[in-house]
Design a protein that fits this description.
The chain is α/β, with parallel strands linked by helices and about 230 residues long. Helices cover about 45% and strands about 20% of the residues.
């Protein structure tokens, strides 16, 4: 997944949202018109898409139709219009939330996190999480690479699951440690985390020295996915 797409013709608003999302560890992409948005939406999968309803060459409702034809990527509408008919129409089209301008960016971030948590639970309610050629069967706690069974320790599995559940988002070392601390019988601290990351890469990466699944983001932490 390629982070969060912001489709907003007001460059000041777009930059403010982008800055706040990057502070939270999200990757962002910005489009200022409908044509550019259609092009990237058709080529790329996103964690979530923020749509301005009014665009110079179209509207967010038409973009939402395209998004829904492709899949169930979460969508938040931004609009200066608080007309109930427009709000209901947006939600009926499959939008996950609707925010009226002007708004506080912190409120938007809070709603984004809430939607992503719900979306993540929905995705993981099934049996499989797929990342590249890695498939995680959450019901059986098994991991496969190109249909070949990969044997992981309980801690390695929990580490992979922690990273996979935040696909596309950078996790700090502390966040990862919080996600795996309760694995019985294993003690992991900041020093030994590097060792476990290395062991996991050796089992799931084609080239552990040039990892494409678990990526190191220097000075920030680790990330799974685009």
């Amino acid at each position: 997944m390629n982070g969060i797409l912001i489709v907003e013709d007001d460059k000041t608003i777009a930059m403010g949202i982008e800055y706040s999302l990057k502070q939270e560890g999200f990757e962002t992409h910005i489009c200022h018109n409908a044509n550019d948005a259609i092009d990237i939406i058709e080529r790329t999968d996103f964690l979530l898409i923020i749509l301005d309803v009014s665009l110079p060459d179209g509207n967010g409702f038409d973009l939402c139709k395209i998004i829904r034809e492709k899949g169930d990527t979460p969508v938040i509408f931004l609009t200066a219009c608080d007309d109930e008919v427009n709000i209901v129409m947006g939600l009926d089209m499959g939008a996950d939330d609707y925010i009226i301008k002007p708004f506080r960016v912190r409120e938007l971030i809070s709603r984004i996190k809430s939607i992503l948590r719900r979306s993540n639970k929905k995705a993981n309610s099934g049996e499989f999480i797929n990342i590249g050629d890695i498939s995680i069967n959450t019901a059986a706690a098994k991991v496969y690479k190109k249909d070949k069974d990969i044997l992981l320790t309980a801690l390695e599995y929990k580490l992979l699951l922690t990273l996979a559940n935040s696909e596309g988002k950078i996790l700090s070392r502390n966040q990862i440690l919080e996600g795996i601390w309760d694995v019985a019988g294993d003690f992991v601290n900041d020093n030994t985390l590097t060792v476990y990351i290395k062991r996991l890469r050796e089992k799931i990466e084609d080239d552990p020295h040039n990892p494409q699944i678990i990526k190191t983001i220097r000075g920030l932490g680790y990330k799974v996915g685009e």
